[in-house]
Design a protein that fits this description.
Blueprint (H helix, E strand, L loop, with lengths): L2 E6 L3 E2 L7 H4 L4 E9 L14 E7 L9 E7 L8 E5 L14 E6 L8 E9 L19 E15 L10 E3 L7 E11 L12 E7 L2 E6 L36 E2 L3 E4 L10 E9 L12 E14 L1
Antiparallel strand pairs: 1-8, 2-7, 3-6, 3-8, 4-5, 4-7, 5-14, 9-17, 10-16, 11-15, 11-17, 12-13, 12-16
């Protein structure tokens, strides 16, 4: 049966189930069921602007994964009916706790009007056809679960020097691992002379052992790019410019992780390399004399092993 953990504002749960990585491997799906409510009965009291909302988790104070991003959403324009389900299964290792203490912190801009957040963590261990979501399988057909996570790149100011922030990272595949993914959450914000990075098309490339994996946010700047995504969770009939497509996100929606299976490109016995680069169209960002935009990104290698 699924395990449901309910968190309400302030988002801090203690005690958290004391789960080692071996126990966490019994879960094949982790989902965030999050909603934002207005502090008043009327939607007139809702926050009027779309802001980035991030959920951070820390289960081990001394770990490099402490206060790492677990989920991301964009708040709607003055609508208090938003509720979203986000699959964050690859990030299961973030929830490993030897102390039984995990702190969850949800953040947005300090100047923005407040929301009343509510969050359920849905952990499911079923591998049958009745599972909420099909489990991840390796190339041999075995059901696998995340056992470790290696941080990669975070975002930066989207200007001419953007790609100078990112350098090649070498890594090896741990023993017993049979499936490896690059998992990232990438969104563009701000407005320069090209409307970057909220309304401009950006391209993001992860190069693994010389092979490129590319994602282009072609929805950015389109007249009805976000209005057409209401079946995918976008809150309908918002105020403001909610209809327009954005760079990797929409107002009133969760930001789903981008998962890339890189298993077949890897040398499991030796050293591998990965490099990230981001582009405006096919070249360097060009903010001109205006304030440059920002790419908000968390990316990581996720290693899976059979159950």
């Amino acid at each position: 049966l699924p395990l449901f953990l309910l968190l309400r504002s302030p988002l801090s749960l203690s005690p958290f189930p004391r789960l080692s990585i071996s126990e966490l491997r019994t879960f094949t799906t982790v989902q965030l069921d999050m909603s934002l409510g207005c502090p008043t009965a009327s939607e007139e009291g809702c926050a009027p602007w779309d802001r980035t909302v991030q959920l951070f988790v820390c289960c081990e104070l001394q770990s490099e994964l402490c206060n790492y991003e677990l989920g991301r959403w964009i708040s709607p324009f003055r609508r208090g009916i938003g509720r979203w389900l986000t699959d964050v299964t690859p990030l299961i290792p973030l929830l490993s706790s030897t102390t039984g203490q995990c702190n969850f912190t949800m953040k947005t801009d300090s100047w923005a009007k407040p929301w009343n957040p509510s969050l359920n963590l849905r952990l499911e261990g079923s591998t049958t056809s009745e599972a909420v979501q099909a489990p991840t399988r390796d190339r041999h057909g075995q059901v696998v679960a995340p056992v470790s996570l290696q941080p990669l790149y975070k975002g930066a100011t989207f200007d001419q020097n953007y790609n100078t922030h990112f350098h090649q990272i070498n890594f090896s595949v741990p023993a017993a691992v049979t499936h490896v993914e690059v998992v990232s959450v990438i969104t563009g914000h701000g407005s320069d002379q090209h409307n970057c990075a909220e309304f401009c098309v950006t391209k993001h490339v992860f190069t693994v052992n010389g092979e490129n994996h590319t994602r282009v946010f072609t929805n950015a700047g389109t007249p009805f790019g976000c209005a057409m995504k209401t079946p995918l969770g976008v809150v309908p009939n918002e105020h403001g410019t909610w209809l327009y497509g954005r760079d990797g996100w929409c107002d009133g929606q969760q930001v789903d992780p981008w998962r890339i299976d890189i298993t077949d490109q890897l040398n499991t016995k030796g050293t591998n390399s990965i490099l990230y680069q981001g582009y405006f169209r096919d070249g360097a960002p060009d903010p001109g004399k205006m304030t440059p935009g920002e790419i908000t990104m968390f990316s990581q290698l996720v290693f899976y092993a059979p159950l």
